[in-house]
Amino acid sequence: MLAPLDLSFRQTVVACVVLAVYFPCVATFAVMLRELGGLKMLKASAIMALTALAVGTLMNLVLKVAVG
């Protein structure tokens, strides 16, 4: 899926980690909307997105130091 993007090793690893952490589908949002309501679903989605970005940022920094 990421092969056509011609990413470096570090970019590929970070992309895979972020996709693994944050990959909700439409059904996930539908269930969250039904179970939590609109406002709580938006809050939960924001938390998931921020967590994925934080993990990706930390992974990028770690690989930058480790791999160079």
Written description of the protein model:
The chain has 68 residues and is mainly α. The chain is 79% helix and 0% strand. The chain has three helices and no strands. The mean pLDDT is 90.
Question: Which terms would index this structure?
Answer:
mainly alpha, 79% helix, 68 residues
Order of helices and strands: HHH
- Tell me the radius of gyration: 15 Å
Q: Helix coverage percent of residues?
A: over 70%
Mean pLDDT: 90
| Residues in β-strands, percent | under 5%
Count of β-strands: 0
Shape: elongated
Poorly predicted runs: none
Distance between the termini: 25 Å
Count up the helices.
Answer: 3
Tally of discrete structural domains: 1
Largest sheet: none
Structural class assignment? mainly alpha
Give a summary of the structure in a few sentences.
By secondary structure, the protein is mostly helical. It has helices spanning 9-21, 26-36, 38-67.
SSE layout and pairing:
Elements: H1 9-21, H2 26-36, H3 38-67
Helix pairs in contact: 1-3, 2-3
